[in-house]
Structure of Alanine racemase:
Amino acid sequence: MGATKNGRRGKVVRMNASSRPLHARIHLDAIRHNYRIAKASAPSSRALAVVKANAYGHGAIEVARALAPEADGFAVACLEEALELRESGIRDRILLLEGVFAPDELAQVDAAELTMVVHCREQLDWVLAARPERPLRCWIKVDSGMHRVGFAPGDFGAIHAALGACAHVGELGAITHFARADEPGHPFIQRQLADFDRALGGKAVMSSLSNSAAVLSLPRAHRDWTRPGIMLYGISPFVASHPAAAELRPAMTLESAIIAVRDLAPGEPLGYGGRFVCDRPTRVGVAAVGYADGYPRHAPDGTPLAVAGRPTRLIGRVSMDMIMLDLTGMEDVGLGAPVQLWGDRVPAAEVAQAAGTIAYELFTGIGRRVPLIHEGV
Ligand SMILES: *Cc1c(COP(=O)(O)O)cnc(C)c1O
């Protein structure tokens, strides 16, 4: 008991429904712990738990349900992600981080009582032309320097006035996003902060600026609502190591098992392209996980992993369904031995760095055929 296994698209998959030994264990108690760190780091702010992209691959419904008793609200990337949470019983605030993509979504934003970002003229026009049954909640996106989406700081006053004068707009907020909050102390952070404040021109507008990195390192940006994402999943948001991230607990353990073992002589090549060549008598283990499951194909020889709790390394090119690893000197490890790809013993950030990416991409890239096992429900 206590563990449920869930497939994608809301379909319930029975325990042990997958024949392969590969699964991702999701530690919901770690996510609750990490959310509490976000709250304690910004004690005067409310925190929207960012659960876009299926909660960064951790299962949006299960994560939202686990956090709902204490979370102030949630943030997602699109209407479908928001409705999935509403349908699973989440009643808290849900923010659409990119607002709507077409005007016909506004009826559902209204019916589901969602909060939306308004980041461009078209969205502004759609909101002004809408005829909702309840007042719409709009957070005006300010482009304070990221230059991805949002209104120029100088336009904020006019947009705020237009929405403020609209009878069917209720709550009004201001939101911006940092481009370099993961590099604490970088002068661009202060420039964005100053440009955001200048945009508001001293008006008392409910504001939201902080992603995980700013939650942990930038108290001046905490304001009314924070938006922690990656930190909830136990990953440091910082480029370099930072003490503020030390208490985070990893929330995903990607595990498989050894499905074949062989001994190779020095000089023998291994796997596609013979990328790895044995430089000594080598005991090779094969584990059931590959790039179709989300294990990065660009992981080089030497990428860390753990077998039966002991550290070892990837050898040979990652294939679609299998990887090879070095079992030399681990004579006692055989078929069925557990292999941890990332988790408590193998930091996902180290695997990501070895493969030239970030843990965000590893987590969101977990393949559909990998069952998620939620623990600590
Ligand atoms: C994804 C996202 C966040 C969360 O960022 P993390 O780095 O994962 O904390 C916050 N705000 C916006 C606008 C986002 O798109």
